[in-house]
């Protein structure tokens, strides 16, 4: 066999015969000639070749040099050449390996949509070891030089395109490591390709290497500056900012068992995840078919495809669709602002997120399709994995239907061992009997798997009995139950009967004590911890362990017990069959969780508040179930110990609308039980009103507070703490509508009652309310004294959130007094605490106050950065009230530096937002900011008119009044006294809404015209 001539031109010039290097050339033009013949693959005239390589020589010299080169090549490689008197070519019949030909062939093949695309691209990229003929210099051959450079450029572009395509392929499939590798190679070829820098930043961020991703931006910036003298594009900078702000979340519960089977389904999910048009994948199938486990495995494998990670939301315990947004927010770590619809906050939070959201057990929530549809429409980079027993019927939904695992058709040992159903059985069996060997029981295991239709839950239940029964006995029991069910439940699908048979088999083998404990566990929603399980079932730990061994009860690595929802429903049916036992279990469940939240009420307001909040949130489904049961029994009095703890918790997590619903239902039940004079009825009305007030529904809150106040004033024995809470709420509402005198009276009476009761946490909260009332009236010294007192008290009891709130309010007082430098350290400390305890709404307020202080100090760059951060946070949370204030301040900052177009953009949005949410305070603040811009642009009389309106408006707080007064003082110089007096008079009689409409119209006109 003839030796193979190997020609490598990418990365240099390397020639070899069967691996032995060829080096004996008379000059470097001989191998260059061979390279030219190999790449062009055609016959050439001698004159053309002479001109190509010796074009700067005389024609005779050129021909002579060509003859010498050809003689040299013929001596070394005669069989590989076709040389005649006039022409030269590479022998097409000879065994020649050419890297550029292989490179192009693989690229041509990859252009066809077929299997193996990535492999062919990878092969092509591997062949590109560097530039075409890198390091080769051929003197006095300009024509060859031009050809070589053209080829070099062409092959480089082909390599860059291949690596770019390969990177996209890796990114679409969530292979961050692969994308990092290919972009690194790409940048090694062309360091200034900005798109590759972006791809590398994204891949690094998705893989959890946030610092490296941010550092890559700096590398990109330096390279572009050095090589091209330009800065990164807006797109690259936006990606940098997005990565810097991103918090990656991998919220997936740990799996206690290895994943078995479903290779085809996983491959299907991977393919769908790689399709950018696929936003929603729904796993449908019967209960117990392993939908949740498959979704978790698929999500874990896809995690690297999402910048903001993956989040699993269990919804089996959700009682209604209204609860679902709170459950999603909890899983996302999103603190809700109760004034804004949780769905709107979710939309705002997820709008710019690149996230995989796993929604588990959606079938029982009516309207869930609408929620998912809204999220998908508003959040273009969020993708959804959903488990349900039925499709959502949404546009673009892709279905993966699950049946049982593949069960072995026969009894052949090898076939049984290869089946995923038998593998799951064997693994489950070894949990309770480590010496279990599948080969010895292959036939019986195959029979069991077929009897239960390969349903994973049924297989796990059956396998759990191998410690006590042989596999043949287990199969016989299941078959017996199937026969019975087939005759009694003829309208039930066979696969459902097979699962029911597995349940009945397990139930029949339980002891009486195990049955009682298992049935009582049905009262839990969303699982429970060991202490709760023991308290409600009145069982020893050994019984829980026995149920866990039998796969009826699951215990996760954190120690939390859960029942599969189908098993819980089965247990619930057994429990309801015994009404007395059911009532007893429900009562114990209610008693336990009332005590649970009552025991944490104090902790919610001291140094333990973050931990207490997490513990209560983990039991939210159980708390709802206990509350609903007590209300349904017309015994809201059983809930009394939990009232205050639940109120504080619901306020801290922002579940205002749900709080109204819970307290309203309990109040109705108490009215029916004990009448409208009941003290508990008053307590429930107060808390219902408290959350109506938090929702700014003052018209609904006020009559409830008046009724509860009348109850408390007649109560015997007196209830000073309850009356104080009622008056505290009245004070808050009065302040919100600008009635500062009423706010002061109610807050002072509330504080006196709390002081009499001696509760330091309530005293601290009421001190804050009185101090805020003083500040709103401009009585800053007294406000400062009271806030300092409240701060000391909150530090003493360890109330971190209260400490931060007091610091924020001290900062607000300092703003009102014009002590701007003092604001910054106060808000900085508050911001750090809010971030530590996870209260983003507090963060937004602190950022806003800090930004305003910088604005007033003339530190405009810092002010702009702080206010923009505040605005971004408000938009993520959906909190438009603080956003309106931040926008107005940003308008003021832009105006101060002469950026008037930007100023009016911010002010227009600020006033529009204030009008849409009906906020008088935000409207007043937006107007006084607009007046400042009007004065700068020469409209001093109109600015003075607006300032007078704001100054004399009863709902304007003192800090806003101070700004208006300053503008009026500044107007004295440019305006004649009669003109200023007339402007003041017009302002005092103007309607607020009309003035705001005029300013908005002005802003629209300014923005519609040419840039200033």
Number of strands: 15
What is the 3D form? flat
Approximate helicity band: 55-70%
- Beta-strand fraction estimate: 5-15%
Q: According to CATH, what is the topology of the domain at 1-168?
A: Arc Repressor Mutant, subunit A
Low-confidence stretches: 484-495
The termini sit apart by 81 Å
User: CATH superfamily of the domain at 1-168, please?
Assistant: Winged helix-like DNA-binding domain superfamily/Winged helix DNA-binding domain
Label the CATH architecture of the domain at 1-168.
Orthogonal Bundle
Q: What about the largest sheet?
A: 6 strands, parallel
Strand order of the largest sheet: 8-10-11-12-9-13
| CATH top-level class of the domain at 1-168 | Mainly Alpha
Which value, in Å, is the CA radius of gyration?
Answer: 38 Å
Count of runs of 4 or more consecutive helical residues:
47
Protein structure class: mainly alpha
Q: Report the mean per-residue pLDDT as an integer.
A: 85
Describe this structure in words.
Helices cover 66% and strands 6% of the residues. The chain has a 6-stranded parallel sheet, with helices on both faces. Strands 3-2-1-7 form a 4-stranded mixed sheet. It has a 3-stranded antiparallel sheet with strand order 4-6-5. The chain has 1012 residues and is mainly α. Helix 11 packs across helix 12, helix 37 runs antiparallel to helix 38 (820-837) and helix 39 (840-856) packs parallel to helix 41. Among the domains are: 1-168, Winged helix-like DNA-binding domain superfamily/Winged helix DNA-binding domain (Arc Repressor Mutant, subunit A), CATH 1.10.10; 174-246, Serine Threonine Protein Phosphatase 5, Tetratricopeptide repeat (Alpha Horseshoe), CATH 1.25.40; 249-401, Rossmann fold; 413-509, no CATH class; 879-1012, no CATH class. It has 47 helices and 15 strands. Strand 2 and strand 3 (20-21) form a beta hairpin.
